[in-house]
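Lab meeting, item 3. Inverse folding demo.
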């Protein structure tokens, strides 16, 4: 056989084929994808350029539309063979790699897959999948807007949204940013900050309506936080076990420099405090204690030492 594949893809195969020994024969072709038959086509379409080249009447062309189109989510080995003897035509087989770009073809295939069920349980499963992916994309977009796409991440859980027009109330946030961390901040009451006080650069807010609870942020987070800070005794008592369960690889920092209460949490990795009694408590249990009232540079240096990091020069965090 002689011939040429002009176009081969997931929805169309086009070209021409001819048997020089039997020029009057119109060849029937079988088209397969990954070994499965997807169509049969007769090579009898007019190709004027072949006639101009002296190949009889030139009616050796073929065109096959593959319906439905082949999935872009997996590689496809497309073979085009003579129906009678199984011989491949010139240029066959062709390997088409899976699509890694969010193209229209991929969108269409995903839509077909998601809609192809009447089972309520399967519908619930697919809706949950879409909800998770939407959640992840929203967080990814927020992180990109905050310039955190390639940064270390820290999660801060506070009682309420703090006045972040300054770093006085939560000084360790400035220290984390100075160390190069992107900070995700979640208030336990899940209330959004006032419209005139949005999260400053380098901080992603996690609150309603984007998240329903602290538990959702911690347990469903697609982020891998290196540091989790629990601000206050009550926050530590409520969320320490949750953090250890779902972010167990993170360094746990408990800030008890704010409102006081009975220390009902287990042993953290690092304690931020300004009380001698808390320092004694930390020393007794082998916990690293950092003075939360230290000047910013000293606080950053102490936190860097506790986390085994090098401080980022001022202005680059």
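The presenter then showed the designed sequence:
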């Amino acid at each position: 056989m002689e011939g040429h594949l002009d176009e081969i893809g997931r929805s169309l195969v086009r070209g021409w084929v001819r048997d020089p020994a039997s020029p009057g024969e119109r060849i029937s072709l079988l088209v397969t994808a990954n070994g499965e038959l997807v169509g049969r086509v007769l090579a009898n379409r007019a190709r004027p350029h072949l006639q101009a080249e002296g190949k009889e009447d030139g009616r050796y062309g073929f065109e096959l539309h593959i319906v439905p189109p082949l999935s872009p989510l997996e590689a496809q080995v497309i073979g085009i063979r003579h129906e009678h003897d199984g011989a491949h035509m010139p240029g066959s087989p062709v390997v088409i790699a899976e699509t890694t770009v969010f193209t229209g073809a991929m969108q269409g295939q995903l839509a077909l897959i998601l809609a192809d069920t009447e089972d309520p349980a399967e519908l619930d499963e697919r809706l949950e999948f879409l909800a998770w992916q939407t959640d992840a994309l929203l967080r990814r977009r927020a992180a990109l807007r905050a310039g955190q796409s390639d940064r270390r991440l820290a999660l801060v859980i506070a009682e309420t949204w703090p006045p972040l027009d300054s770093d006085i109330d939560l000084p360790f946030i400035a220290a984390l940013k100075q160390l190069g961390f992107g900070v995700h901040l979640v208030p336990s009451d899940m209330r959004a900050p006032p419209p005139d006080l949005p999260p400053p650069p380098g901080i992603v807010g996690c609150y309603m309506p984007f998240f329903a609870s602290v538990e959702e942020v911690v347990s469903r987070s697609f982020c891998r936080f290196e540091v989790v800070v629990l601000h206050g005794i009550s926050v530590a008592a409520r969320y320490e076990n949750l953090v250890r369960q779902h972010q167990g690889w993170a360094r746990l920092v408990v800030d008890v420099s704010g409102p006081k209460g009975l220390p009902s949490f287990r042993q953290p990795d690092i304690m931020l405090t300004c009380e001698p009694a808390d320092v004694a408590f930390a020393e007794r249990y082998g916990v690293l204690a950092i003075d939360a009232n230290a000047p910013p540079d000293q606080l950053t240096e102490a936190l860097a030492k506790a986390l085994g990091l090098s401080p980022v020069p001022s202005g680059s965090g």
